[in-house]
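Marked as duplicate of an earlier ticket. Keeping the data here for the record.
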Amino acid sequence: MTGTAGDTEMTTGNDNHNGSFIEYVTVMIGGQLFGLPISKVQDVFMLDRLARVPLASAEIAGVLNLRGRIVTAIDMHCRLGLGQRQMDRAAMAVGIEYRSESYGLLIDSVGEVLKLAESGREPNPVNLDPHLARVSAGVHRLDKQLLVVLDVERIFEGGNESMAA
C-alpha cells in the first residue's frame, strides 16, 4: 500500500456527498476487486512458511508464525466458492483480528487505499454471485469495475463455527 489515502480519493458518481467517507484496502481475489474497511486491516504481508493443519476444512490453508503470533490462514478463493487457490506463486495475505484471534486472508494481490463516500455504497445487485453476496456489505461502482465490500464478520460466520486452527 503506497501513497496516502488523499492521493487516491475517488468519487462514485454522486458528487453531492454530504456524508462521511470510508477508506478501503483494495485486493484482488480470482479477478474480482474487493474492498476491506481499513479499520479492520492490521497488516498486509507475504506468506513465508505455511504449516498445513491436519483434518482442517479446505478453507483453512494452514497456520503461520507472524512476528510471534500464530495466524490462521484462510483461503479466500475457497471461502468465496472459487475453488482452492493455486500455490504456484507467492501468496499475499491481509491480517485481520476477529474475536481475539489473528487471521490472514489469502489474496492474489493488494491494490491501493481508496477513500469512498459512504453514501455511494449500494446494496448487493440481485445478480451478484451468491458466494460473494454472502460475505458482501454492498458494492461501490467505480469507473470500470465493481468494488465488492467485504464484511469481515460475514467472512467468518458462514458455515464454519470455528475458523481458528
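See parent ticket for discussion. The chain has one domain: 5-157.
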